Amino acid sequence: MLRLRYLLNRARRLSPANLLGFAGRIAAGSPRSRLGILIDMLWCSVRYETAFQDYADWDFHLLTRAERATYMTHPKSNHLVERYNAKESRHTFRDKIEFNTAFAPFIGRDWLDVRTASPEQIADFAAKHGRIMAKVPDSLSGLGIKSYRAAEIDDWAAFREKLIAGRQFLLEEFITQHPDMAALYPDSVNSLRVITFAEKGTVSVLAAVLKVGNGGDIDNFSGGGMYTMLDEHGVAHHPAFDAAGGTFAEHPISGTSIVGFQVPLFAETLALLDDVAVRIPEMPYIGWDVAIGADAPMLIEGNPNSGVYQLKPSLSGVRTGLLPRYREVMHF
Questions:
Q1: Which residue intervals define the domain Alpha-L-glutamate ligase-related protein ATP-grasp in the entry (predicted)?
Q2: Fewer CB within 10 Å, N side or C side of the chain?
Q3: pLDDT single digits (tens) 154-211
Q4: Is the entire prediction scored with pTM above 0.90?
Q5: Could you report the per-residue pLDDT of 216-252, keeping only the tens digit for each?
Q6: What is the rounded CA–CA span in Å between residue 185 and residue 238?
Q7: What is the pLDDT of residue 276?
Q8: Helix H segments across 244-311?
Q9: What is the pLDDT of residue 220?
Q10: How far apart are CA 138 and CA 145, in angstroms?
Q11: Are residues 163 and 133 in contact, defined by beta-carbon separation less than 8 angstroms?
């Protein structure tokens, strides 16, 4: 019944233009027609619970039925969120200010609530850090995040009013990342998304992801960023890809190689997550965004809707997904 209800809700939100766009883009690199791709996308949304972006990202048009059945998908992940993450506890993760308060020892940066700060306090905060990030506390996918530099602001009262009007209630110092991470792309914090499941005090890693910005202030996939998967040692073995289908063995702006990149302080990152992932037992299934600072990893945020990340078959040659790993750890 839950699955049927979910599919009906998806059907109501269906955008024919988006569906045709996905099908056309995939068909352009496939011997199959757009109509054939379109029919297959709809079939996979029912049979394998794939979102249309899932179908495109993980090259479902190239996979056999047996291979498709190994892939985790966003709808499947949403079901697990509903099963494991207590609704009454999700607010701690959905509000970035509440998250910063709850996980204060682990965030490694200064922050300020604009609603309770005066223009003078905001000016002092910006002057101290030079570059600051303004965030909408309850936004998703990087929406409402913008970088500001103190030298560019003259009227702090007007700046505060602008932030309030845009619901950018959270100001944070811009994270100074490890030089190796900055070498990938210096204008955004290039973070890790590590998806964990905690059970009886044991933390299991379901997926580890390297996210990299590309032309903007953020590294989010939906905001023009790219990602690739990491192995258990924090090494990227395959090119990154973005939501538009672009693929990158090297970063197109920095020229830094993504293939073979070793995330610094990766063991320390896993140790950090072993600590924080058990702190709210009612929320065992979390996608943690982690920045790698010069000397230590630091939490950016925790996502109760963790997202799904897997290797792209056409880039990696790997034609199996992570569903078996999820099933092994999460018992479904």
A1: 168-309
A2: N
A3: 999 999 999 999 999 999 999 999 999 999 999 999 999 999 999 999 999 999 999 9
A4: yes
A5: 878 888 778 999 999 999 999 999 999 888 999 999 9
A6: 17
A7: 98
A8: 266-276
A9: 85
A10: 11
A11: no
Question: If the chain, 332 residues long, is cut into consecutive pieces of 10 residues, what is the mean pLDDT of each piece?
Answer: 59 71 86 93 95 94 97 97 97 97 98 98 98 94 90 97 98 97 96 98 98 89 91 98 93 98 98 98 98 97 96 97 98 94
Residue 197 DSSP SS3: strand
Q: Is 329 helix (H, G, I), strand (E, B) or coil?
A: helix
Is 240 in contact with 228 (CB distance < 8 Å)?
Answer: yes
Long-range CB contacts (within 8 A, 24+) of 152-158: 153/123, 153/126, 156/119, 156/120, 156/122, 156/123, 157/119
Distance of alpha carbon 266 from its chain centroid, rounded?
18
Architecture of the domain delimited by 178-309: 2-Layer Sandwich (3.30)
Pairing state between β 192-199 and 285-292? antiparallel
Residue (of 63, 54, 48, 52) closest to 23 by Cα position:
52
Dist CA 168 CA 117 (whole Å) = 13
Q: What's the Cα-to-Cα distance from 114 to each of 156, 208, 245, 282, rounded to whole Å?
A: 12, 33, 38, 30
| Degrees to nearest 5, angle at CA 56 with 50 and 58 | 75
Question: With contact defined as beta carbons under 8 Å apart, do 196 and 307 qualify?
Answer: no
Assign domain 110-173 to its CATH architecture: 2-Layer Sandwich (3.30)
Structure tokens at 116: 């309770």
Q: CATH 3.30.470 occupies which residues in the chain?
A: 178-309
